[in-house]
C-alpha cells in the first residue's frame, strides 16, 4: 500500500468526520429543544411556543441538511477508503452501521419530511409525535454510530476466523462500555452545544431590542436552563470514561497524562505482543486536545451557572447588554470542546484502527494516491464550503427572527 | 439467511432506483420542462417534499450492503472509486440546491441552486451508469460507455414519467410534460421506466457474487431479523408520507402569495 494513499485517506477521514461531527452535535442538541418547545406549545396552546418551534425549527432544518449531506460521504467512505476494515471486521462492524442506517436514519429522514411538510396538514398531536420520532431516532443514530466506534476503541464480542473476525456476542458489542459511556458523554455535550446556541441567538435579539423579547426571553431561559445540568451530565460520563480508559486503552491514557517512562513501558509491551513497530499515538496532539476539552469545562460551567442565576431576573434578561454580548460570544466554545474530545478519542487510538487488532495502515483501500488526492481535494473543499454556507445561512435566519413562514420554502 | 439478506438488499436498492431515480430524473429534466424562473420553481416543488424520504433508500441499501455483504461493499466501492466520488459530489450539490434554494430571495441565488440541482442530477445519473457497469470488477470498455449512456437516458425518461405524477396538468410545465411523454402518458411511462429500472438493478445484482459475499451466519442471524421487523414499519411511514404530501406542484400563479418580511 502506498504510504501517500494512507496519509491522504487519513486526512480525508479526519476532515470529513470532524466536519460532520460538528453539524451533528448541533442537530442533536437543537432537536431536543425543538421537541420540548413543541411539546409545551401543543399542551398549553401557547402562541409564543408555537412561534418558537417554527423559528428554531428553521435553524434546525438548515443545520440538519448540512449534517445529512456530509453524512452521505461518511457512509460511503468506509468502503471507499478503508476496505481493509470492512474486509477484516465487516462481520462485526457492519452490523451496527447497518442498524444505524435503517433503524435510525431512514426512520428519522422519513419523519423529518413529514414534520417539515406536514405543518397544518395533520392533527397537532400527530405532528408533535413526528418531532419526537425525529429526536429519538437522532439519538438512536448517535447510539449505533458510537457502538460502531466503541468497537474500534475496545473490541468485544468477536472471535478470530481465519484472516478476519466474526461476531460471537452481539450483546457484548452493544453493551460495550466504550460505546455506552461515550454515547451519554456526547449526548450531554450536544445539549451543551444546543443550550449555548439557543441562549446566544436569543441574546442577540434581546441585545438588538427586537420586538420579540417575549419569545426570546423564554428561549434564553430554556437554553441556559439546560446548560448546567447538561454540563454536569457530560463531565460525569467523561470522568467515567477517563478512568475506564486505563483498562482498555492504557496507551491513550498514558499519552494524555502518563510519564515518558510509562509510555516507554507500554511501547515495549506492545512490541512484545504485536511485533516491532511504533505503538505510541501522536502525544502532543492527544494531550493538547484532551486538555482543551477539559479546561473549557470550568469557564463554561461558571458562566453557565452565573447565567442561570441572572436569567431568573426579567429586567436583567431584557436589559443587561454586556451579558448578552458574553452569551453571543459563548456560542463557539462548546463546539471547540466537542471537536477536541473527538480528536482526543480518535487520535489517541492510533496507530490502530481497531485497538490491538488492526492497524490503520492495514485498513486503507488499495487505491492510487492520485484517486485519493482527487477525492480529498473534492470533499475537503466541498466541506469547507458547506461549513461556510451553514454559518451564513444560520446567521441570516437567526437575525431574521421569527417570521410567519414555512420551515422550508423553495 | 443469505437469501433473506439478498431480498432486503434488492428491496432497498430497487426502491432507490424507482423513487430516488425519479427525483434525479426530474432534476435532469428541469431545463426541458421549465423555461422561466416560476416554472423552474414549480419543478423544484415537484421534487422537494419527497427527495429526502426517497434518497435515504440508497442510504438504507448501502447499510444492508455494509452489514450483510461487507467484503463485497469494500470491493465494489474501491474498484469503482472515481464513480462513487462523483456520485457523492453530484448528490451533495443537488441536495444543497434543493435544501437551500428558498433561503434567499435573490434570483441569482435561485438560478445558482437550479444549476446545482440540474447539473448535480446529471452527474449522479452518469455516475450510476458508470458504477453499475463497473461493479463487475472491470470496466467493460466502449460498449460500457454506450450502456452507461442508456442508463442516463433511462433516468431522464423516468424523471419525465415522474413529472406526469408530480406536476399539475394545467399550466405550461404540465403541457410540456404531456407533449414530451407523447401518447404513452405519465402513469404508463412511469410504470415502464420503473420496470426498466428494476431490470437494470436485477441485471447488476446478478453479476455480483452475493451468496459468497455475504457476512457470517452469526452476523446475519442478528441483522436480518432486525431488518425484517423494521422494514414494514418504515414502509408504512413512507406510504403515509406519500399520502399526506400527495398534492401535485401547481403553477406559480395558483399559489397564494406569501409575504417574506425582513428579507
UniProtKB/TrEMBL annotation, chain A:
Electron transport is among the record's keywords = yes
Q: So where does this one cross the membrane? A: 20-43, 55-74, 94-118, 125-147, 182-207, 219-242, 291-313, 325-344, 374-394
Q: Which GO terms describe its cellular component?
A: cytochrome complex; plasma membrane
Per UniProt, subcellular location reads as:
Cell membrane
Determine if Metal-binding is one of this entry's keywords. yes
Which domain of life does this protein belong to? Bacteria
- GO terms (BP aspect): aerobic electron transport chain
Give the way it sits in the membrane.
Multi-pass membrane protein
MF-aspect GO terms: electron transfer activity; heme binding; metal ion binding; oxidoreductase activity, acting on diphenols and related substances as donors, oxygen as acceptor
- Keywords from the UniProt entry: Cell membrane, Electron transport, Heme, Iron, Membrane, Metal-binding, Transmembrane, Transmembrane helix, Transport
- Which family is this sequence assigned to? Belongs to the cytochrome ubiquinol oxidase subunit 1 family.
Q: Entry's PANTHER family?
A: CYTOCHROME BD UBIQUINOL OXIDASE SUBUNIT 1 (PTHR30365:SF15), CYTOCHROME D UBIQUINOL OXIDASE (PTHR30365)
**Per its record, how is this protein called by name?**
Cytochrome ubiquinol oxidase subunit I
Native organism is Actinorhabdospora filicis
Gene symbol here is: cydA
UniProtKB/TrEMBL annotation, chain B:
Task: Report the subcellular localization.
Answer: Cell membrane
- Fetch the InterPro entries from UniProt: Cyt-d_oxidase_su2 (IPR003317)
Q: Provide GO CC annotations from the record.
A: cytochrome complex; plasma membrane
One annotated GO biological process: aerobic electron transport chain
Q: What is its main location?
A: membrane
Among the Pfam families in the record, one is Cyt_bd_oxida_II
Q: Which residues form a coiled coil?
A: none
Report the membrane topology from the UniProt record.
Multi-pass membrane protein
Q: Which residues cross the membrane?
A: 6-26, 47-67, 79-100, 112-135, 141-163, 184-203, 223-245
Q: Which domain of life is it from?
A: Bacteria
Molecular function GO terms recorded = electron transfer activity; oxidoreductase activity, acting on diphenols and related substances as donors, oxygen as acceptor
Q: Which UniProt keywords apply?
A: Cell membrane, Membrane, Transmembrane, Transmembrane helix
Name the PANTHER family on file. CYTOCHROME BD2 SUBUNIT II (PTHR43141)
Family recorded in the similarity comment: Belongs to the cytochrome ubiquinol oxidase subunit 2 family.
UniProt-recorded name of the protein: Cytochrome d ubiquinol oxidase subunit II
Organism lineage string: Bacteria, Bacillati, Actinomycetota, Actinomycetes, Micromonosporales
Amino acid at each position: 500500500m502506498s504510504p501517500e494513499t494512507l496519509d491522504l485517506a487519513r486526512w480525508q477521514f479526519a476532515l470529513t468526520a470532524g466536519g460532520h461531527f460538528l453539524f451533528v452535535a448541533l442537530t442533536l442538541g437543537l432537536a431536543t429543544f425543538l421537541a420540548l418547545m413543541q411539546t409545551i406549545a401543543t399542551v398549553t396552546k401557547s402562541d409564543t411556543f408555537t412561534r418558537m418551534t417554527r423559528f428554531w425549527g428553521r435553524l434546525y432544518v438548515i443545520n440538519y441538511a448540512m449534517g445529512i449531506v456530509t453524512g452521505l460521504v461518511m457512509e460511503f467512505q468506509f468502503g471507499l477508503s478503508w476496505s481493509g476494515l470492512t474486509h477484516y471486521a465487516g462481520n462485526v462492524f457492519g452490523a451496527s452501521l447497518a442498524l444505524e442506517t435503517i433503524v435510525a436514519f431512514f426512520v428519522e429522514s422519513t419523519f423529518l419530511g413529514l414534520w417539515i411538510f406536514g405543518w397544518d396538514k395533520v392533527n397537532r398531536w400527530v405532528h408533535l409525535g413526528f418531532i419526537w420520532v425525529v429526536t429519538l431516532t437522532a439519538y438512536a443514530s448517535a447510539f449505533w454510530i458510537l457502538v460502531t466506534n466503541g468497537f474500534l476503541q475496545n473490541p468485544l464480542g468477536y472471535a478470530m476466523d481465519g484472516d478476519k473476525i466474526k461476531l460471537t456476542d452481539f450483546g457484548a458489542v452493544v453493551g460495550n462500555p466504550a460505546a455506552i459511556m461515550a454515547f451519554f458523554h456526547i449526548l450531554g455535550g450536544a445539549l451543551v452545544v444546543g443550550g449555548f446556541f439557543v441562549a446566544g441567538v436569543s441574546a442577540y435579539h434581546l441585545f438588538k431590542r427586537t420586538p420579540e423579547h417575549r419569545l426570546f426571553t423564554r428561549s434564553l431561559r430554556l437554553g441556559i436552563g439546560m446548560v448546567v445540568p447538561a454540563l454536569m451530565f457530560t463531565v460525569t460520563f467523561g470522568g467515567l470514561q477517563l478512568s475506564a480508559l486505563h483498562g482498555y486503552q492504557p496507551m491513550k491514557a498514558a499519552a494524555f497524562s502518563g510519564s515518558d517512562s510509562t509510555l516507554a513501558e507500554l511501547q515495549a509491551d506492545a512490541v512484545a505482543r504485536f511485533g516491532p513497530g511504533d505503538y505510541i499515538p501522536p502525544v502532543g496532539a492527544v494531550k493538547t486536545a484532551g486538555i482543551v476539552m477539559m479546561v473549557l469545562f470550568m469557564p463554561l460551567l461558571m458562566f453557565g451557572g452565573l447565567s442561570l442565576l441572572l436569567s431568573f431576573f426579567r429586567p436583567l434578561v431584557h436589559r443587561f447588554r454586556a451579558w448578552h454580548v458574553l452569551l453571543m460570544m459563548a456560542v463557539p466554545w462548546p463546539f471547540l470542546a466537542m471537536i477536541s474530545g473527538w480528536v482526543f478519542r480518535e487520535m489517541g487510538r492510533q496507530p490502530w484502527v481497531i485497538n490491538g487488532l488492526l492497524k490503520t495502515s492495514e485498513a486503507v483501500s488499495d487505491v492510487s494516491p492520485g484517486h485519493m488526492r482527487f477525492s480529498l481535494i473534492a470533499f475537503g473543499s466541498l466541506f469547507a464550503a458547506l461549513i461556510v454556507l451553514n454559518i451564513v445561512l444560520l446567521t441570516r435566519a437567526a437575525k431574521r427572527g421569527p417570521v410567519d413562514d414555512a420551515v422550508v420554502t423553495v | 439467511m443469505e437469501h433473506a439478506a439478498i431480498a432486503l438488499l434488492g428491496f432497498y436498492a430497487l426502491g432507490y432506483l424507482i423513487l430516488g431515480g425519479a427525483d434525479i430524473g426530474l432534476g435532469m429534466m428541469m431545463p426541458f420542462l421549465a423555461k422561466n424562473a416560476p416554472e423552474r420553481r414549480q419543478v423544484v416543488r415537484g421534487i422537494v417534499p419527497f427527495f429526502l424520504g426517497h434518497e435515504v433508500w440508497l442510504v438504507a441499501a448501502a447499510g444492508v450492503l455494509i452489514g450483510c455483504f461487507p467484503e463485497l461493499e469494500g470491493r465494489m466501492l474501491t474498484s469503482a472509486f472515481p464513480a462513487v466520488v462523483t456520485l457523492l459530489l453530484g448528490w451533495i450539490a443537488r441536495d444543497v440546491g434543493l435544501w437551500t434554494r428558498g433561503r434567499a430571495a435573490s434570483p441569482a441565488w435561485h438560478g445558482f441552486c437550479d444549476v446545482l440541482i440540474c447539473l448535480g442530477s446529471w452527474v449522479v445519473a452518469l455516475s450510476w451508469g458508470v458504477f453499475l457497469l463497473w461493479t463487475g470488477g472491470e470496466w467493460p470498455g466502449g460498449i460500457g460507455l454506450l450502456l452507461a449512456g442508456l442508463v442516463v437516458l433511462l433516468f431522464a425518461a423516468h424523471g419525465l414519467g415522474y413529472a406526469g405524477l408530480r406536476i399539475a396538468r394545467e399550466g405550461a410545465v404540465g403541457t410540456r410534460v404531456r407533449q414530451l411523454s407523447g401518447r404513452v402518458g405519465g402513469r404508463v411511462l412511469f410504470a415502464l421506466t420503473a420496470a426498466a429500472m428494476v431490470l437494470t438493478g436485477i441485471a447488476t445484482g446478478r453479476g455480483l457474487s452475493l451468496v459468497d459475499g455475504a457476512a457470517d451466519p452469526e452476523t446475519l442471524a442478528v441483522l436480518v431479523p432486525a431488518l425484517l421487523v423494521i422494514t414494514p414499519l418504515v414502509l408504512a411511514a413512507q406510504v403515509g408520507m406519500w399520502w399526506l404530501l400527495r398534492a401535485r406542484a401547481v403553477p406559480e400563479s395558483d399559489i397564494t402569495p406569501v409575504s417574506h418580511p425582513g428579507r
